[in-house]
Every structure is written in C-alpha cells, then in structure tokens.
Amino acid sequence: MEKNRSKQFCDGVTDPNLGPTCGRILGISFDPISGSLHLADTFFGFASVGPNGGIDTIIATGANGVRFNFLTGCDVNPITRDVIFTDASQTFDIRTVVRGNFTPDSSGRLIKYKVVSDGLSVPAGPAFSHDGSFVLFSEFSDKRIIKYRLMEDTTEVFLNLTGNPIKIKRTPTCGEYWVAANNIVSQPKNLQGQFNNTLVNALQEYDVNAGKLYVGSRDAGYVGMFNKW
Question: Residues in domain Strictosidine synthase conserved region (predicted)?
C-alpha cells in the first residue's frame, strides 16, 4: 500500500479519476520463493510487497527513459524468478478507456526491467510458460495472444480470438492457461452469470484440488470466486 495513500478515502474506490491519488493495481503476481507479491499499479508503477506485508516498495516507474503510462499486468518466471510486465499504451490510460474516448494504438510495451518488445496493440497479461522459456501476453485491440520466446528474443501469434483478451494466468496443469476476454462465443467456461454481468479483467487459480477460480474486474470493488467443478 502506498505510504501517502489514505485507507479511509481510497479503500473500495473504483473511480479511475481517483487513480493518481489512490493508485489502481491491474496486475499481481506472487513469488513463492521469496514470498513477495509483485504489483502492476497503473498510476504508481511497478512495486513489490515483502512476505510480511506492509507498505509496498516502488521498484520502477519507467523503462528506457520512458515513464510507465498504463501498466496492466505482471508475472514471475517460475524458473528464473525474473518478472515481466505490460505497459498497455503511451497515449491513453485507464481513465480514457473507461470514458470510451480513446483510439487503440500500437504504443504498448512488454517489459522485463527493460523493454523487450514494443509497438504492441494494447498489451496485457502476461504469463510465463511452466518451464519459463516463453511468455504469453494479449493484444487487446488486435484480439490475439502473442508468444514471446525469451532465449530467441522472437514473437509469434499464438492464438487469434473472436473477442478482446485481457489477462492470462498460468494454471497448475502444465501447458494450460486461463484467459480473461470479452465477447467470446461458445467457450467452455462462461463467468458472466457468476460475476453479475461485470466485465472480468483478471483471473487467478488457487487451490486446484478444491477447484476454485478467483476473478476480478476494474469495475468491481470485490473479488469473485467461481467453482470450476
């Protein structure tokens, strides 16, 4: 939690116009080795909270001399523990997205403490593979998922979708991922009814034996739980 952030004023707030004061975390990723929780705060930057909780530490507010403008997600490499995250755009942020007065562009970036790929169309996600050899991330406006191979430093289209993908999460099952997207037709899992018709922006799977899937949204001040089985 930010040092100057007022808990009484900010907790439960979903108004993006209060983001510069309260912050807005659009991505989290847990490092099971260190016990740290990494945060992609779209207003304050890339941060981390230690295993004992408390106030977060801002790790970076920009890359390659360019300030972060719209952080949307992060993930920890399960093998190397490197952290990768997405900056969706250099021209608009969550406030203009909510108002609907923006034009999607290709100014987004995939970042690992440095820019590893740019010219992206509103990127989000991202998620490392189970062996840590590649990263999957979404391009929201192009309706597709991109694979970035770390060793080869190359990208390729992994999957084209009929809707706009947002967050991607690695599941405990090797080779499987959850994708939060809108306007998808005939998918095996539809969370819309269970989440009160609120746009789902984030997914996280925990406790695989109990079959729990946790979902979040920028439009909701709570976390929903979906029973998969």
Answer: 74-151
